[in-house]
Request: fold
Amino acid sequence: MRDTGELRRALADYLRQNGLEAVTAWGQERRLRPGRAVAAVSLRSLEGGAPGFQDYLGERYDQEKGQWRELYGKKVELVFGLDVSAATAEEVQAGVDVLGTALGRGGPEGLRCVGFSAGETAYDPAARRYVCPAQARFSAWAVAETGEKDAFLDFEVKGESKV
Reply:
């Protein structure tokens, strides 16, 4: 995955595959959908410590160019906002339960959930919905490979292997 939009979409897709409606941006038609909870997926932070790709990860053979490329990386932590909204407090709680179960199974391919928290459900009169703030932390690697002139080509966020 190469950008934060891709990361948000991957997590929203994962949640939908596990039974919870999820969106990456609020639209009025989804927010007011009766009978179901909806999780709003946002990326709240991406932290990786010192700048640069300081950890040597090995080499990868590029068959197209017939050469080896060095891989470098750094461990990063992604914190996603997963605020759950519904018409009733009961629907919100059911959505939070599904969210917790889905995250307990892991996450999108390559991302490993390392923490989940949910706050107190409250009524939001402006939205005419009940909302429970929630967030999940994921551990991943930002990986870059060198090109022909030993400059970094691009980077990609890759997760850890699932155990």
